[in-house]
Structure formats: structure tokens, C-alpha cells
Write a structure and sequence with these properties.
The chain has 21 helices and no strands. The protein is an all-alpha fold. It is globular, with a radius of gyration of 23 Å. This is Gluconate transporter.
């Protein structure tokens, strides 16, 4: 019986965590720390040992990603306020032409949500979707859901968004490979949600806006009027708008590819070559995102004063503060489970179950998401609980496990998720059943496609 005390203790810790977040006014940060204490003491650690391990786990997790999260949100804030996100949307709409606006908005969401928080990005871009719906007599649900769907997928799967970045750190996964896997897995998810968004136009044709004056306007007129309403300044060019996003991703990818090349016979032993040394430095996420922030500041806000730039960057950091703390608390919980041996005990039992072990973080993320709503908290919690367990099971690919935690957090967005209200209120949906069909089912479809992607990725890797 004593052998199972740590497992029972972990169950109590997880129950306490969920209860505190769901039923009390205790914040997720404190709830995770309390759960870590329960798991540590029940796992055989002394109180002093538990606190020491929690502190080290918190510090090591933030030590690897804290700066990257900070730089990522600073860059994202500049993209928000400069109009770069709108420019990307307009450009895709022009390229894809009439009657393909939903694809243009979904692709925009896919790109823009990599650095910008999903709620903010939807608020910024939704007026454009509304204007396009009036101009082209398109169903507003189709355009709104396509935009929100593109945003939510990369927000949940691709660093430097804080959630997947924290998951990568907890699982010990290279950020470059996490980005690449997330961007690949996100593609079928976005395609699936666009087709669902098109079906919504058939189910709810009443969301077809009728505005005869808008129907005669062209895209340029809509763009100009919208920007005059929002802020009286011109949009940056497309190249400058995309550069702060593409440059860091490219540098990080090149470093990841170079790592693969150096493991081959052809390039073996060439680590000190100037090319490999240069991109090893430039491809470090901290350096790549620092370059991105500089590019964003000097190309997207060239005429802004020093004080205005500082204010914008600090606004981004304020939004990141609580996410950093929650991520660090997740690292603390994970460290306690590793050191107490609870993870090893559970791993031995799970290895014998008729279940793909890599799906454990997916299942945990799904449950936590359903219970408390936040996708970021769901994936961080799932990573914290599952990483110490599945790392003990031979043959587990930690990259697949990390993406499993990220994809599991997409399940059934509803009342306890802020984006549920942002999407439904801005589109103007008041009926509860319709709200769930429009948005809760959209995220669930993405969740199913993400699960299939994770299973396929596990078979490949």
C-alpha cells in the first residue's frame, strides 16, 4: 500500500488544483504551487526539500524561456499597434481575390497569432472581417470563425506564443523543432475549420449582412475608412509587416536544420565552421527574437518617440507577467513529481496500459481545458504532470508529447474561456446553443484534427 501513497497523493494534488481554480478565488499560480507541495510531501519528500525543488524547478523553467516569452510579447505588441497585422490581412485578401476572403483571413490568423495574443489579434482584425462581409455579401459567421480559427491554432501550437513555449521547456524540446512541428500540424486544423466555417453559412444564412452602399466600395476604400476610424496613420508595407515574424522563424529553423546536418557523415566534425557558428548564435531563440524586436521597432514604428516605443514594449511585458509565473509554477510541479519518484511509479503502470503513452498529455490537457477554460493553463498543467511520467517510458518522442499537450488544450471552448465570449460577442451571437455550435464545435473540430495529427506524427517519428 505504501508504494501507492505517492500516486494517491498526486491524485489529491490534481483534484486540489482543479478545485481551487474552478471553485475558489485562488489564482492558477497559487493553485499549482499548493498542488506541488501536496505532491511533494505525499511523494516522500520533506517540506524543506519540496520547497527547494519547487524553487529550482520554477527557476530552471523560466531560465530557459522567460526572456524568449518577454521578447515575443514585445514584438507582438509592436505588430498590434503599428497596423502590421491589418496589412497582412489586406494583402492576402487581394492575392486570393473575391469569394475567398475566409481563406485569406484564416491564413492571416495562422501567421499573426504566432507573435500576437489571440484575443487581441481577433479584436484588431474582426472589423475588417465585418467590412468584407458587407462588401461581398458574405456570411459574417464564415469570415469571423475562419479568422478566429486561424488565430487559435497557431496560438496553441507554435512558439513564441507563451503556452507552447512553456510546454517545450517542460518537455525539454528544442524550440525550433517545436515551431516546425506546430506549424505543420496547424495546417490541416486551419483547413478543417475553414470548411466548417463555410458550413455555418448554410446553417445560419441570416448572418448574411445586407448593405448596398458597402457593396459598391472596393477593398481599398474599406481599408482607408477602417484605418481612419482606428488610427489616423498609414499602414506599413507588407514586407516590413512580415519581416519581424519571418526573420526569427527562419533563423531558428536554419539552426535546427544545421543541427541535423552536423549529425550526418558529410558535415561531421564541422561544428567550428564559421557558417555553423554564426547560425548557431543567430538561431538561438533569445537572439532571434531580440533581432525581431529591433526590426519591429525600427521598421514598423520609425517615427515614434522613444517614450512611445517604451510604453508599447512595456504594455506587452505586462500581459506576459502572469503567464511567466504560471509557466514557472508548472515547472515547479513537474520538478517535484520527478524528484519524488511519483512519475517513475506511474510510468511503470502506464506502460502496461492499452494506450499510446504519448497521448497522456493530450488527455490531461483536454480535461483541464474543459474544467477551467484557459488553453495556456491546460497545456502547461498537462506538461507539468505528464513530462516526469512519460520521460521514464522508453521510446517516447518528447516533441510529439509536447504537441499532444498543445493540441489537447483546444478542446470545446465554452463559457470559462475568454475567447469564447470575445468571438461570440463581437459577431453578435446571443443564443447559447448557437454560440456553442459556432465556436465550441469549431475548436472541437480542430481538437480532433490535432489528435489525428499527433498520432500520425508519433508514427512518423
Amino acid at each position: 500500500m505504501e508504494r501507492y501513497i505517492p500516486v494517491i497523493g498526486l491524485g489529491i494534488a490534481v483534484f486540489t488544483l482543479i478545485f481551487l481554480v474552478l471553485r475558489t478565488r485562488v489564482h492558477a499560480l497559487l493553485a499549482m504551487l499548493i498542488a506541488a507541495v501536496i505532491a511533494g510531501i505525499s511523494g516522500g519528500l520533506t517540506a524543506a526539500n519540496t520547497i527547494d525543488i519547487m524553487t529550482k524547478g520554477f527557476g530552471s523553467t523560466l531560465g530557459s524561456i522567460g526572456i524568449v516569452i518577454g521578447l515575443g510579447v514585445m514584438m507582438g505588441r509592436v505588430l498590434e499597434v503599428s497596423g502590421a497585422a491589418e496589412q497582412i490581412a489586406y494583402s492576402f485578401i487581394k492575392w486570393l481575390g473575391k469569394k475567398r476572403e475566409e481563406w485569406a483571413l484564416a491564413i492571416t490568423g495562422y501567421i499573426v497569432s504566432i507573435p500576437i495574443f489571440v484575443d487581441s489579434a481577433f479584436v484588431i482584425l474582426y472589423p475588417l472581417a465585418k467590412a468584407l462581409a458587407k462588401k461581398g455579401k458574405r456570411n459574417l459567421l464564415t469570415l469571423g470563425v475562419a479568422l478566429a480559427g486561424g488565430l487559435i491554432v497557431t496560438h496553441s501550437a507554435v512558439p513564441p506564443t507563451p503556452g507552447p513555449l512553456g510546454v517545450a521547456a517542460i518537455f525539454g524540446v528544442d524550440i525550433g523543432t517545436m515551431m516546425l512541428a506546430g506549424m505543420v500540424l496547424a495546417v490541416p486544423c486551419v483547413i478543417g475549420i475553414v470548411f466548417y466555417a463555410k458550413w455555418l453559412a448554410v446553417k445560419y444564412p441570416e448572418f448574411q449582412p445586407i448593405d448596398e452602399t458597402a457593396a459598391t466600395e472596393d477593398l481599398k476604400e474599406i481599408q482607408q475608412r477602417y484605418m481612419e476610424e482606428k488610427v489616423n496613420k498609414p499602414l506599413p508595407g507588407l514586407f516590413l509587416s512580415l519581416m519581424p515574424i519571418i526573420v526569427p522563424i527562419t533563423l531558428i529553423f536554419i539552426k535546427a536544420i544545421n543541427g541535423l546536418l552536423l549529425s550526418t557523415e558529410t558535415f561531421f566534425g564541422q561544428e567550428n565552421n564559421l557558417y555553423f557558428q554564426a547560425f548557431d548564435f543567430l538561431g538561438e531563440p533569445v537572439i532571434a527574437l531580440a533581432i525581431s524586436v529591433l526590426l519591429a521597432v525600427y521598421t514598423l514604428m520609425p517615427k515614434a518617440s522613444k517614450h512611445e516605443v517604451m510604453d508599447r514594449l512595456e504594455e506587452g511585458l505586462q500581459a506576459a507577467g502572469i503567464i511567466l509565473l504560471v509557466t514557472g509554477a508548472g515547472g515547479a510541479l513537474g520538478a517535484v513529481l520527478r524528484e519524488s519518484g511519483t512519475g517513475t511509479i506511474l510510468a511503470q503502470h502506464i506502460a502496461n496500459l492499452p494506450l499510446i503513452p504519448v497521448l497522456i498529455p493530450f488527455i490531461i490537457a483536454t480535461l483541464v481545458r474543459l474544467i477551467q477554460g484557459s488553453a495556456t493553463v491546460a497545456m502547461i498543467t498537462a506538461a507539468s504532470i505528464s513530462a516526469p511520467i512519460i520521460s521514464q517510458i522508453p521510446g517516447i518522442n518528447m516533441l510529439v508529447a509536447a504537441q499532444a499537450a498543445a493540441m489537447g488544450s483546444l478542446f470545446f471552448s465554452y463559457f470559462n474561456d475568454s475567447l469564447f465570449w470575445v468571438v461570440n460577442r463581437m459577431i453578435g451571437i446571443k443564443d447559447v446553443k448557437q454560440q456553442m455550435i459556432v465556436w465550441s464545435m469549431s475548436t472541437t473540430i480542430v481538437w480532433v484534427i490535432g489528435l489525428c495529427g499527433v498520432i500520425i506524427l508519433n508514427l512518423v517519428l
